[in-house]
Design brief:
Strand content: 35-45%
Order of helices and strands: EEEEH
Number of strands: 4
Bound molecules: zinc ion
């Protein structure tokens, strides 16, 4: 589990705090990948999620090569 240092939010005066991701969606390479059990950052005010670079890298890898992902889920999408 990687460390996540709390920092100021880029979008509001809130503080971004470490959060254990529970199927948090991240969009990479045109696909949605769910992050589960890794530490990401979440603003305690606006709720904006911050994904550390190493997690983005892992997500990109999973997006490009789904066979290498720990598991694959179908993500339902609600769109206009
Ligand atoms: Zn914020």
């Amino acid at each position: 589990m990687s460390n996540y240092e709390p920092h100021e939010c880029d979008f509001c005066p809130g503080t971004v705090e470490p959060l254990r991701a529970d199927s948090e969606p991240i969009k990479v390479c045109g696909r949605t990948v769910l992050i589960d059990g890794l530490t990401i950052g979440k603003c305690n005010r606006c709720g904006h999620r911050y994904f550390p670079a190493d997690i983005v890298k892992k997500a990109e890898k999973a997006a490009l090569d789904p066979d290498q992902a720990q598991r694959t889920e179908t993500v339902p999408v609600v769109a206009a």
